[in-house]
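User: I'm preparing a small set of examples for a lab meeting where we compare how different chains pack in three dimensions. I only have the primary sequence for this one, and I'd like the structure in token form so I can line it up with the others. Please keep the answer compact; I'll paste it straight into my notes.
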Amino acid sequence: MVRIVVHYKLLSHMFLKILSIKYITKVLDISSYHHQLACVIFCLIIYPNEESISLYMRKPTLRTSSRTQKSTKIRTAFQLICFGCLTGSLLFRVFLRADVGQVVALEHRDVVRTCVEFSGPVDSGANVSITMPQQVLAMLSLVEHIFVISLEGCNSRFPPWVASRSTCIHGKVLDDCTPKKFTDGDFEHAMKVTFTHAAIITLSIEAGYKTIAVLEDDLAFVDRDFSFEAAEKFSQLLASNAWNMIRFGFRPYFLQLSGTSHCPSSCRCVTSYVYGEHFCELRNPGCDMRSSDLYILPSYNFLSFRERLLDLGLPNTKRIVDVHPMRAYGKQWILLPQISYQQTLDIPADYQIGAGALFVKKCVGPRPLASSVTKQLVVGSTGTHKPLQSPLVMLKSEFEML
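Assistant: Understood. Below is the structure token output for the 402-residue chain.
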């Protein structure tokens, strides 16, 4: 019985030690494996245990020599001092980071308020000049407000009833207003884009919007046919609390690196009868799904999303909008099949669509998928581009088996 109690105390103590180590690496944002290992070793050395503390506190006994007691007290005192200093520095870092975050948010808000004419209306057009498929328009019309990000002026054209609830963001004007500390360092262009997305969140908070759609003006659309109930299912999803983000555009970056690898568990996308055959859910955070060309965000995530975009305590690679900030959310819903792609990217349009099709094949379930999704993975054309070819032609036989 005594042995069981001792083992229980030992296990509980080690569990608390592991939790503290994970907390330290998270708060200090230690991402390097070598740094994590050093942090673990350091914590294991300095973390005071129950036996050493009790030995330090109790009176000397005949069983323990005075030299042993003295060395143990010195060691334990050193452990307590080190552990106290580390705990104090962690608490200071937490509160300092919170204070700095509030200062940065206020500075960002002032930039958004004082920057002149970086936002304006989106032009409306006749049916022949509308730049978005009707089925996508039908779904986005259910969102409270739409923001279109452009460099100098929006080429997007919406019907009057959608354009009246849309705002064009002039990126170049906002770039001139952006303080250097938000964009200094690596990936300057990506940091400017990230600052623009944060500005949209600030505008949305001040306007009191409940839901917003953010799209990039240079995106292009793929000809798709959605089932007649797609807009209705989207409306049901939008009215629920079952989502943190809805993505019409997506780029499965993990498949671009290795198309032959298995789908990571965090990238498993599950369809639901409740929300129809054209939507699947990334239930867990962590999937390396990129692209911010067309996504929808609810008001209850405005503050947390903006905080991630503006956290100057992180390296730039962890603030880029479609890398870590988007990856931090579970309950992301993906529109299937892929409806949009980016015209200016480091890979051709056909490969973007091909990666999206490969994502459906590897990661979306349960099987079998609806034919309205699978039959369109290798058919169609990328806007004004030629019909889809490599790598989709090579995958056609595999998709016909779905």
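A couple of notes for your slides: The radius of gyration is 27 Å. DSSP finds 15 helices and 14 strands in the chain.

User: Perfect, thanks.
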